[in-house]
Amino acid sequence: MRDLKPILERDNAVYYSYEPLQRILPKLSDEDKEDLKIDIGRKGLKETIKVVKLKPTRDMDKNKNHYVVLDGVHRLEAIKELGIEPKIQIGEVKKEDWLRIGIQLNVGAKRGRQIRRKDLVKKLYRRYKRRVERVGKRPSIDEFRQELRTYEIHLSLETVKKYLFEQRKRTNTNESLESQGTPGGLCSPKLTALAKQLGKPVTETLSMCLEIAKTVIDTANQLGTSPDELLRALQGLKEVR
To answer: Do 165 and 187 belong to one domain?
Structure first.
């Protein structure tokens, strides 16, 4: 099968990665792979590798068991280098569900390595967009959110829009700021009043505000929500107190 790539052959078993799934999942850096290998070498394999058993095709050795890995490709690669026997958990999953189940398993993984959800959503959206445009339809964020739920990814409309269009909006904002030329062009009355209240120069006040905004955005991304939703939640806590 063209979508399968052999990873490991051990005794009477051959393990394959499912390439459509691997193309969507964020890649591990070389440093992360080395850390994973060291961790497995020291502590052993703590989690089973989730696989489905494959019926051999004509070009496969029928005397061996063939498995498709839905969760654990990087661990299996580390095992290959370390010479450790894999611990597998075999599930019954139809081929048309390999992608969906594989994403669910990886998103739900409780490891030190966590998938960046924003990157995953972007990749899934590109895949969805190509598919609907091939049949002459226009992409719909609401329809895409429904598709995300099949992968057990539940996000608000605002968060999905932020994930997909944040970079574009940031680029446009940067271009707008650059076109203003000098910090003087950014001096709104509110910023000037805040600077006066703090007893600081406007440029220093602006830098401080940008740093606070960056912290809010980063924290919201880590929580898988939007800055507005995070600020509303914080405001609610303040009111309760």
So the answer is: no
Rounded average pLDDT per 10-residue block, the chain, 241 residues? 88 92 82 84 88 89 92 92 90 90 75 60 90 92 90 82 68 44 51 82 80 76 64 58 45
Counts of helices then strands in the chain (DSSP H, E): 10, 5
34 plus 126 within the same structural domain: no
Structure-token pair, residue 116? 């960046």
Nearest to 84 by CA among 44, 50, 47, 34: 44
Q: Count of CB atoms within 10 A of residue 88's CB?
A: 18
Q: Which of 77, 91, 86, 55 is nearest to 6 (CA)?
A: 77
Instruction: Give the up-direction half-sphere exposure of residue 193: CA atoms within 13 A in the CB hemisphere.
Output: 3
Contact between residue 153 and residue 121 where contact means Cβ atoms under 8 Å apart? yes
- Measured in whole angstroms, the distance separating CA 34 from the mean position of its chain's CA atoms is 20
Quote the DSSP letter at residue 186.
Answer: G
Tokens of 99: 């992608």
Q: What is the pTM of this model?
A: 0.54
Say how far apart CA 79 and CA 44 lie, in whole Å.
9
Q: Of 88, 114, 140, which residue constitutes the final position of a domain? A: 114
